Amino acid sequence: MRTILAMERVSKTYTLGKLSVPVLHNIDLAVNEGEFAAIMGPSGSGKSTLMNLIGCLDRPTDGKIIIGDMDTSILPDMELSRIRGKKIGFVFQTFNLISRLTALKNVELPMIYQDISGAQRVKRASELLGMLGLEDRIDHKPAELSGGQRQRVAIARALVNEPEILLADEPTGNLDSKTGQEIMQIFNNLHNEGRTILMVTHDQTLAQNCDRIIRLKDGRIEDGKYC
């Protein structure tokens, strides 16, 4: 099975004035294509920093991060931005939709930066929204949608550029339990289609849906066993 993500002795230290704050220490991690992994750990364990590094939103202080066959830790900013837009899809707890844009326009947005034509953008965004049961909501703005519908729009936006890795940060955290289960079923379906998914969650029940639980403690991987 192809390794789609490899982290080799990755560390991250933030510098605040004269103060150095180490957050991650010598992380070694390999994720295979098609794997669904949960990332768990107490607050302050380094989960968000790990996700930011994988998602090319930040750079490691030391070590390598290889996505596919590219060492993203040494890429120039412009190339790193391109990789982030093409190879990584993000789903956030707070949805992060643009309030003035319709569902359709929100989903189209990542394609604009990939130089995809307007007609292709509309076609692809409409297809994804339809697949997620929102064909009658494409012209609605986020304030006109329920929490579950907003998260479905966010998932469609994350998928629109056919990313190699889908990163989900507490994707059910702002939803009631029934809606959270529906969103989790979407992730299960995506996994069954062969998507590679990394999901931060505090919910042990949700984590049990995954192939593997990666547990962080004090900036180190404590356990990464398969379920």
From TrEMBL:
Its domain of life?
A: Archaea
Q: What is its EC number?
A: 3.6.3.-
Q: Could you tell me the keywords of this UniProt record? A: ATP-binding, Hydrolase, Nucleotide-binding, Transport
Where does the ABC transporter domain lie?
Answer: 5-226
The record's section on Gene3D superfamilies has:
P-loop containing nucleotide triphosphate hydrolases (3.40.50.300)
User: What Gene Ontology molecular function terms does this protein carry?
Assistant: ATP binding; ATP hydrolysis activity; transmembrane transporter activity
**InterPro entries of this UniProt entry?**
AAA+_ATPase, ABC_transporter-like_ATP-bd, ABC_transporter-like_CS, ABC_transpr_LolD-like, MacB-like_ATP-bd, P-loop_NTPase
* One Pfam family in the UniProt entry: ABC_tran
Q: Which residues form a coiled coil?
A: none
Q: What SMART domains does its record include? A: AAA
Q: Name one GO cellular component term.
A: plasma membrane
Protein name, as recorded: Uncharacterized ABC transporter ATP-binding protein YvrO
Which species is listed as the source? Candidatus Methanoperedens nitratireducens
